[in-house]
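Ticket closed. Logging final result for Putative amidophosphoribosyltransferase.
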Amino acid sequence: MIKKLVKATGAGVCALVFPDKCLGCGKYIKKNADNPLSKCFCHRCLGEVLPVFDHPFCPACGHCFESGPDHLCEACLKTPMVMESVRAAFIYKELIQKALGLFKYQSKLSLARPFERHLFQAFATHFDMNGFHLIVPIPLHVSKAKKRGFNQSYLLVRNFPRLYRDAYGRPAPWCIDIRCLARVRATVSQTGLDHKARKNNLTQAFACPKPDYIQGKNILLVDDVFTTGATCNAAAQTLMNAGAAGVSALVLARA
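Final structure:
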């Protein structure tokens, strides 16, 4: 009890002496307990960083429309994805793009917790949470994992079982799995590549080391960003070829 009190007091003193600054504009932050991202962004910037993913959108790939009802987009009508559906927490716009850049490339890992809470909320909003057996974060190749020091997709979901238990008072009906999908070929960054180049870049990039384990199971892939969908689609194809019953994707931000 005393240790907790000392820790809480110390945290309060640090907050007064060294208040957090907004990652967007650099101004000091007034935190809001109702919004986890208020630890990272001021009230004004939150209005920009939180373009929440919502209707209307393509029920397959999650491409958002400005108006009208939900309907299949032109790309999905022309070439259906391997995945059944894609949903997101945010629309990938300027400030969320900056925040993700800080998270991935500058190791601003304090963003992981608020990001995961928003992603969990999107999971509860857009999916039947009892409809999956496994949640699989998109893996990094071992060379990139060593260089970066962490897998951002895993950090976004590692506490999902606890969040589910806290919200519903029972164990999650799925588990987080990092064994059934591996990145077996090092690829160049997808940034700046067009759709065809992205697809070619991911040819034979993934493998399923334990096909027996995923037979007949519904899998939810998790990644940080979905742009053309080449990464998630390649991973989903690998899992479907190995015997998965179905694959969907949940991402933090949808371009």
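Strands lie at 86-91, 134-137, 175-176, 182-183, 206-207, 218-226, 246-254. No further action required.
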